[in-house]
Input
Amino acid sequence: MSFTDQFTISHYMTEAVHTLSKNHTLFEAKRLMKEYNIRHVPILEKGKITGILSERDIDFLVCYKNIDIHLEKIEQAMTDEPVIVGPDTLLDEVCREMASKKIGSVLVGVNQNVQGIFTWIDALKAFDNLYQATSK
Output
């Protein structure tokens, strides 16, 4: 790994991403999130990114709209214009954008094909990694 690679988002993103389609139910999404201890799920149609669903999106609907998650489809809760960055995007750019938009994750992809996800937890791990490297 080169020096500059450690500053790109691809170095810190989560690669093994679990995905769903907008036709799955919110219950199925919640079950997937619990099973894999994740809070964000990319939504794909025919292999292409069409949205993102967060645990918070589901909880908001349940709390304020009193919906049945066994019946409601992901399409009702997902964000249909997620932030997507390329794998070579610099870490500081992504963190700055996440902070300014107050979002918990961005998708990493090329041509609407998901390659990974970068969450605020990944950002904290990146900070720790870079801090440890510079404090030696």
